[in-house]
């Protein structure tokens, strides 16, 4: 499946190879992106909002410049659910633009509005 990235979540993690003698362990790193929400002034993941996308260093993703990946088209594995979490592997960035099947979209309160849970209409 082909996916175009239009935005990233606010939480990033990375995982490097465990063998310190492997000269390519950083090049083969995995990078994970997910949604975060403000909790006591810090951005945190929440157990009710679970899932992430994974990028591999060998697939054309450059962790030093993630915004360069915006509007790029990636070949992706089909989404799956593993241990109760939604996951999508972005396998490789395509060298030329193609029509995507899907878009990775991020919705932020600044773009779509903020839900006021203290509103009388919601009680």
Describe the structure.
The structure is a single chain. The chain has 123 residues and is mainly beta. The protein contains one helix and ten strands, in the order E-E-E-E-E-E-E-E-E-E-H. It has one helix spanning 109-112, and strands spanning 2-5, 11-15, 30-34, 37-39, 42-44, 51-56, 73-76, 80-82, 85-93, 102-104. A hairpin with a 2-residue loop joins strand 8 (80-82) and strand 9 (85-93). It is globular and about 45 Å long. The relative contact order is 0.25.
Offer a concise description of the structure.
Helices cover 3% and strands 37% of the residues. A hairpin with a 2-residue loop joins strand 4 and strand 5.
Question: Would you spell out the secondary-structure blueprint of this structure?
Answer:
Elements: E1 2-5, E2 11-15, E3 30-34, E4 37-39, E5 42-44, E6 51-56, E7 73-76, E8 80-82, E9 85-93, E10 102-104, H1 109-112
Parallel strand pairs: 1-10, 6-9
Antiparallel strand pairs: 1-7, 2-3, 3-6, 4-5, 7-9, 8-9
Low-confidence stretches: none
Strand portion: 35-45%
Distance between the termini: 42 Å
Mean pLDDT: 81
Helix content: under 10%
Instruction: Name the structural class.
Output: mainly beta
**What gross morphology would you assign?**
globular
Q: What is the ordering of alpha helices and beta strands?
A: EEEEEEEEEEH
How many DSSP H or I helices?
A: 1
Number of strands: 10
Profile the largest sheet: 8 strands, mixed
Gyration radius, rounded: 17 Å
């Amino acid at each position: 499946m082909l996916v175009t990235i239009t935005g990233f979540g606010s939480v990033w993690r990375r995982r490097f190879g465990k063998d310190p003698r492997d000269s390519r362990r950083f090049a083969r790193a995995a990078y994970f992106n997910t949604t975060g929400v403000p909790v006591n002034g810090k951005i945190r993941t929440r157990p009710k909002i679970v899932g992430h996308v994974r990028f591999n260093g060998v697939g054309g993703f450059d962790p030093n410049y993630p915004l360069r990946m915006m509007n790029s088209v990636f070949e992706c594995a089909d989404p799956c659910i593993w241990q109760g979490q939604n996951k999508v592997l972005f396998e490789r960035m395509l060298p030329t633009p193609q029509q995507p099947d899907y878009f990775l979209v991020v919705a932020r309160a600044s773009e779509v509005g903020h839900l006021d849970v203290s509103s009388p209409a919601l009680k």
